[in-house]
Automatic annotation (TrEMBL):
Residues 182-416 form the Ion transport domain. GO terms for molecular function: voltage-gated potassium channel activity. It is found in: Cell membrane. The gene is Kcnf1. CDD domains: BTB_POZ_Kv5_KCNF1. This is Voltage-gated potassium channel regulatory subunit KCNF1. Residues 415-452 form a coiled coil. Gene3D superfamilies: 1.10.287.70, Potassium Channel Kv1.1, Chain A (3.30.710.10), Voltage-gated potassium channels. Chain C (1.20.120.350). The chain crosses the membrane at residues 183-204, 248-270, 324-341, 385-406. One of its GO terms (cellular component) is voltage-gated potassium channel complex. Residues 25-126 form the Potassium channel tetramerisation-type BTB domain. Keywords: Cell membrane, Coiled coil, Ion channel, Ion transport, Membrane, Potassium, Potassium channel, Potassium transport, Transmembrane, Transmembrane helix, Transport, Voltage-gated channel. It comes from Oriolus oriolus (Eurasian golden oriole).
Length: 489
């Protein structure tokens, strides 16, 4: 315990005689020493370094409230912080803005800025975007962990129907929850494949039968298989709708709309077949039924529910709208230019196939995309030269945006794998903590995680089994503990 008369603090300036603007202080951060002058630091008086200039007159209590240690002989302040991040943060005193170096965790850097009391507004926009992306990843990890804990928890206050509803939802929506749930997911996947194969095989003339009016129709066996598949899809959709915790969100979900489109044509065509003949002509009924049967192709999109690859492709395309727009713009400009040139150059030939510029659009599309059906082709020398240039430009126009689109797909796919692994690691940490008797149980952890502003005790109970070197309070107001969930993944 240091006493007020400790000789180490005899050099502390208690009368404030030295002007803070002319003062020179030495800061040692993680073994890296840097010298600062008061006039530079006082540009931002609310920062920690600026407070160091004025803390000497307050005695050692004031000094040690700002730093970890102090050498009065050298007037050197010691901090056990990241020196690399500190080198970036001090740029604010000289350049008025801060840039993160490559390789520094953005969340850790944000915590360093908060420690040094430097406002985030001085962080450059490019670095803010990286910080926002990392925050979203942490929030996604927390959301996944909370969902898993919610599935594991059992609330005794819930009614029997609520518990049954939750079990059905887990059984149909989360194949990883149990072995029977995985079997149901595989069966659903097989029914989708079978119904798609039956739809295709039913159009083979040799497998069709002729009805009393002489019209071809699908084989009765294929109709029975189709009916069985539709029955499975209907039962699955109804059970998922009944057990859904949010039925409005369930009904408006894209994949659930696809499920309805895959089921509805069967019942509409069945209704028209038995009741429509009384209300309209038989030919009109058959045309309506045939049009509805074409809508059965929507069921192939049900595969996306069981394929993480298709889901990743969908999200990657959503994030690549800008690149896809550039691709369409390049092609649209090329199609317009080369179709107009082709029409003009082919007018001198008596057997020209270019009757108009709109008709030439088709030729330009199949040429620039290197399809080349050959139904329209140039016959003049200039027209052939224009065609050669058009498909070369088409290859370049298509190749330019492809690389960013592929990068978006790979980045999103890798990100999902990282988030899934991070959520599993967090659950393993909870299990380890529970095994050592330091946790309060999965249900109480869920309640603490979801209780806003009260996450501190939850994380503090797990601090002794965490080995993270970073500290993030994004998901907690408690600022003195480090956890893997709060770490940079």
């Amino acid at each position: 315990i240091k006493m007020a008369g400790d000789s180490r603090f005899t050099d502390v300036d208690t009368d404030g005689s030295e002007k803070s603007e002319e003062m020179e202080i030495v800061v040692n951060v993680g073994g890296v020493r840097q010298v600062f002058y008061g006039d530079n630091l006082n540009q931002y008086p609310e920062t920690r370094l600026a407070e160091l200039v004025n803390c000497l007159s307050g005695g050692y209590d004031s000094i040690f409230s700002l730093c970890d240690d102090y050498d009065p002989g050298k007037r050197e302040f010691y901090f056990d912080r990241d020196p690399d991040a500190f080198k970036c943060i001090v740029d604010v005193y000289y350049f008025g803005e801060i840039h993160m170096k490559k390789g520094i965790c953005p969340i850790c850097f944000k915590n360093e800025m908060e420690f040094w009391k430097v406002d985030l507004k001085f962080l450059d926009d490019c670095c803010k975007a990286h910080l926002s992306e990392k925050k979203e990843e942490l929030e996604e990890i927390a959301r996944r962990v909370q969902l898993i804990l919610d599935d594991l928890g059992v609330d005794a206050s819930e009614s029997r129907w609520k518990r049954c509803q939750k079990c059905i939802w887990k059984f149909l929506e989360k194949p990883e929850s149990s072995y029977p749930a995985r079997v149901i997911a595989v069966l659903s996947f097989l029914f989708i494949l079978i119904s798609s194969v039956v739809m295709c095989v039913g159009t083979i003339p040799d497998l069709q039968v002729v009805d009393a009016e002489g019209n071809r129709m699908e084989h009765p066996t294929l109709d029975s298989i189709e009916t069985a598949c539709i029955g499975w899809f209907t039962m699955e959709y109804v059970l998922r709708l009944i057990s859904s915790p949010n039925k409005l969100h369930f009904a408006l979900s894209f994949m659930n709309i696809v499920d309805v489109l895959a089921i509805l044509p069967f019942y509409v065509s069945l209704t028209l077949t038995h009741l429509g003949a009384k209300l309209m002509e038989l030919s009109n009924v058959q045309q309506a039924v045939q049009a509805l049967r074409i809508m059965r192709i929507a069921r192939i999109f049900k595969l996306a529910r069981h394929s993480s690859g298709l889901q990743t492709l969908t999200y990657a395309l959503k994030r690549s709208f800008k690149e896809l727009g550039l691709l369409l713009m390049y092609l649209a400009v090329g199609i317009f230019v080369f179709s107009a040139l082709g029409y003009t150059m082919e007018q001198s030939h008596p057997e020209t196939l270019f009757k108009s510029i709109p008709q030439s659009f088709w030729w330009a599309i199949i040429t620039m995309t290197t399809v080349g059906y050959g139904d329209i082709y140039p016959k003049t020398t200039l027209g052939k030269l224009n065609a050669a240039i058009s498909f070369l430009c088409g290859v370049i126009a298509i190749a330019l945006p492809i690389h960013p689109i592929i990068n978006n797909f790979v980045r999103y796919y890798n990100k999902q794998r990282v988030l899934e692994t991070a959520a599993k690691h967090e659950l393993e940490l909870m299990e380890l903590n529970s095994a050592e008797g330091k946790a309060t149980g999965s249900r109480s952890e869920l309640e603490d995680l979801s209780r806003e502003g009260k996450e501190g005790p939850f994380y503090s109970s797990r601090i002794k089994v965490s080995h993270s070197d970073t500290f993030i309070h994004l998901l907690s107001e408690e600022k003195h503990y480090r956890t893997r969930l709060q770490s940079c993944k």
